[in-house]
Design brief:
alpha+beta, 3-stranded mixed β-sheet
Length: 141
């Protein structure tokens, strides 16, 4: 399946209208670093899609987030986005702000269960582990 077809399929499954702007934003998220700010997404996507404004990118990202197509992560007062195409958690370096995805999930077994003592039904989770990345650890020694 070609990339553009994949993005069309993602938008249709989310009951969202397929537009060149939305395709450009999804393509930009898929081809860049794991996380990107709205500004960084706009800087790359507007080169492909004439007339794509920063405000439009904000609106589209909010719509994609609401539909569950992208995930929003707030780090150090800045909002970042990534594709929500599969479940993953994150490790975040408290020194430099580096964020890496973790594909191994230790909490997945809780999904669908009721928490003891509260009766709370777990539907999902988002886990951000804070620490110090290997580069910052080496720099500190």
């Amino acid at each position: 399946m070609k990339s553009a077809d994949r993005y069309v399929d993602i938008l249709r499954r989310a009951n969202l209208r397929v537009t060149p702007q939305r395709i450009a934003i999804l393509s930009t998220l898929a081809s860049g670093q794991h996380l990107a700010t709205c500004q960084a997404i706009w800087e790359r996507a507007h080169k492909r899609t004439r007339g794509l404004g920063l405000v439009t990118v904000y609106r589209i990202l909010e719509r994609l987030r609401t539909a569950g197509v992208v995930e929003q992560i707030d780090l150090r007062g800045t909002t970042h986005f990534c594709l929500a195409d599969h479940h993953h958690d994150h490790v975040i370096c408290e020194s430099c702000g580096r964020v890496d995805p973790i594909d191994t999930c230790v909490l997945e077994s809780l999904t669908g269960s009721r928490l003891e003592g509260t009766g709370f039904l777990v539907k999902g989770h988002r886990l951000d582990l804070l620490g110090v990345c290997p580069t910052c650890q080496r720099a500190a020694t």
